[in-house]
């Protein structure tokens, strides 16, 4: 259940009165949400199909909370397949039990099953999102999470007149389970999507889609907080609005120094809070998103999704609701070319943490655990007599430090908690097994084949960690958005080519680096992140391009308990799903 806006406003007033007269804070959050996972029929691109949804909604319902709240989500699986739900970017301090990744922190919720998930908000403030984390169900099972400031506090920027979630996604005409199955069966790339979407709608440029195009109605002179989420499965996106700059004020539920830009780059898993000033002449203006894709031999969806920013009032050559091509101001905004790495990372490099008195940062300066890991697309030999659809008749694979991760058959967190042997190994290396010119375009074929394993890295509580994520040119190379569960990390440096251990650390930003939960590693380049391992539990690290994660580009950090009771893993809930 989600309360209407009027009820939320009433609760806000009551909270303010409680704070003013009784000095007692209260919460805006609904304590309980009901998520019923079930199929529903939706029509897009001239054809109808059944998709998996939450509560029949696509995109799914928005969760709203306040800084520091705890809420519960009762997930009922009325679908035909296993499901798990992940609360992307929610740190879940000491409580990985409800984090959601299948066979990492939990066994899936089977059809007919239920799981009451406890969601613990701590330092997050801004926009996050939730999504399925089992197979490829997240293609349609996703929604926004909005974390408001505490009562009595405010945004570190002028209060917007309205707030609007803008969720970018992908749509396949085919059943997504069949897309995944074909990828498994052939060993090749999955079929590319047929459209991108904005709030579930493809937009004017696709067949049978104009009538449903999402429209944002604005008043001239007002400011709107756009809560951008990239829920796409396999593609990084550029996003822009015709004749309007966006002022970024937050990323991944953390505040940033204001950054004005004509476009943004947003990877799968990432969120951006951006202010839109309605300061143009009243008319209709396109907002658009399209692919940023750098793989040399990789097919991708090169279509463009659109929505409309529609000013209130009367103006010449108004656009009808069924066609937006008649207004001169409705032409598409210019975006960087699809493989413009400099443009993509020029935007990302401009993001800085707010780092002021009310929003301090704590970048680890003295590092105890240094990890250097390669992230690669690989291949395995075809296991039958027929040629597979990967390069040279092989099967696609992916790896971190030459290990292609294999999911266990039971939940890794439960195996750790119960001291069950034989489920995983703890030999994930802090250096890759082979050192070579990672970004050379001519690499020996034997480097393309990784080994399979379920290897994790164990970290002591409160240790300081630095990870250098090095992309390789194996299979041509491509960008990788890497997401860490249970933590935010500071992005202290990035660059193209091979990481230079002597020169590159000298250029680290240790003053105001952005704090994120998902970082884009540039094609044949590197990124360095730092964090303190102060959240005990089992936490997944993976590429958020789903085909790469499915192929094995992931590993797990196990952070051990500390000495004090408040530094130890909380016990599991009584209704954990069983395998």
UniProtKB/TrEMBL annotation:
Coiled coil: none annotated. GO terms for molecular function: copper ion binding; hydroquinone:oxygen oxidoreductase activity. It is found in: Secreted, Extracellular space, Apoplast. Pfam families: Cu-oxidase, Cu-oxidase_2, Cu-oxidase_3. GO terms for cellular component: apoplast. Residues 1-29 form the signal peptide. Its main location: secreted. Keywords: Apoplast, Copper, Glycoprotein, Lignin degradation, Metal-binding, Oxidoreductase, Repeat, Secreted, Signal. One of its GO terms (biological process) is lignin catabolic process. Its cofactor is Cu cation. Residues 37-150, 163-313, 432-562 form the Plastocyanin-like domain. The keyword Repeat applies. The keyword Cell inner membrane does not apply. Belongs to the multicopper oxidase family. Lignin degradation and detoxification of lignin-derived products. This is Laccase. It comes from Gossypium darwinii.
